[in-house]
Design a protein that fits this description.
Layout: E1 4-8, E2 12-18, E3 21-29, H1 33-46, E4 52-59, E5 66-70, H2 80-89, E6 95-102, H3 109-128, E7 130-144, H4 148-157, E8 161-167, E9 171-178, H5 180-193, E10 198-207
Helix pairs in contact: 2-3, 4-5
Amino acid sequence: MKETFFTAAKSIQIINKVKDSKFYGSIARADTREEANDFVSKIKEMYSDATHNVSAYVIGNAGQEIKYADDDGEPAGSSGPPVLQAIEGADLTNTVIVVTRYFGGTKLGIGGLIRAYGDTARLAIAEAGRKKLSLFYSLEISTNYNHIGTLLGQVEAYQAELNDTRYTNDGIIIKVLLTPEKKESLIKTLIERTSNQVSFREIGHLYR
């Protein structure tokens, strides 16, 4: 799992005119396949009168990417793959692009289509910009009353984000958000300073 990756910084749309055709490039961040498909459906509905709504997206990272490309009626390989290649070429993930084409009467040929769709996707990426996302782990930590001060003090020292605090009959349970390197170091420090009177449970992870 990568500790950092890049995604589209914002959702935007650009227009690219190629000969007599108009190409609309719509780009957005999508953290799941469902979000990407919803975006594609929204654009297709918005431009239901268009000649083609070509789409591509990459979701996930570290060898577990979901990659998708759809030519939407254009000659096979002439539109969806160039859009996908633009996303990959910009080193983006969790990113979806739909390129909408309104045919203007002049055929572009396979090579022309590849350039037009790829260029439109790259223009959309350039306009949206890239946003760096970092990996954070959500960690539940519990200890007894004798070590509450140590626990809370170290959480503050490591600049972990404290999201929840609960007091029980046995002590305290907190939930924190922190980077991978800080997580490992905090765990080691707390085990040492509480004489192992502390427990940990990894709840999940997120990128932001």
